């Protein structure tokens, strides 16, 4: 009897997860590139030029936007994985767990930052009473946290969708193990008698060709012709030739001259024959 030693649930991604992960990658990448893109826009819009917007060096950039960069990479991996499993059951519970846990951590972290900027910071004063460049800085700093928060929320929804599909799936992978036969097990009882086996399996040794036998050329089998029945032919009968009787010419009884055949009067004397 087969024994089930490993079970695993698999499901497909669908178009919804592909779209969610794609938009999450766009939003998280926009949040990670907010500093260089914002500095470029600031120098082109406002009169006073700046060299540093938020992060002066690479270490400060990683400290500020490291979570957004990690979320962008995670979203890209989720997009390609879901694209491969769009019509096939390849996603398991581990993938759904990553889609739920990591975006949840990002949402909690960015939620705290959004609360700090909007409530504890000077966001309202800068928007209502500050200059245009101050409004731009505050709005950009808020976008650095809002965009990754939305991206993480999209991935979190996708993870819940995959988890819901896995709950409705059956165990797809089963590896059966054949039962081991003990060494002292009795031999199986044959289903046929020795006489039936002798008829069922004829000895082919008598039909075995010796090793030094010459190869036999295949010859075409000629079918015997069946003679057609015809009527017996009678031998021709020989007929004896009969002699032809030759009659002597007729003569006139009066003058003795020869007469023509069938003549009634003599052409010499004129008398009737």
TrEMBL record:
Could you list this entry's UniProt keywords, alphabetically sorted.
Membrane, Signal, Transmembrane, Transmembrane helix
Species: Ruminococcus bicirculans
Q: Where is this region: Disordered?
A: 205-255
Membrane-crossing residue ranges in chain numbering: 58-81, 93-118, 138-162
The protein's name is Zinc-ribbon domain-containing protein
Give every Zinc-ribbon domain span. Answer: 251-273
Task: Please name the Pfam families in this protein's record.
Answer: Zn_Ribbon_1
Q: Where is the composition biased (Low complexity)?
A: 223-243
Residues making up the signal peptide according to the UniProt record? 1-34
Say if the entry is tagged with keyword Membrane.
yes
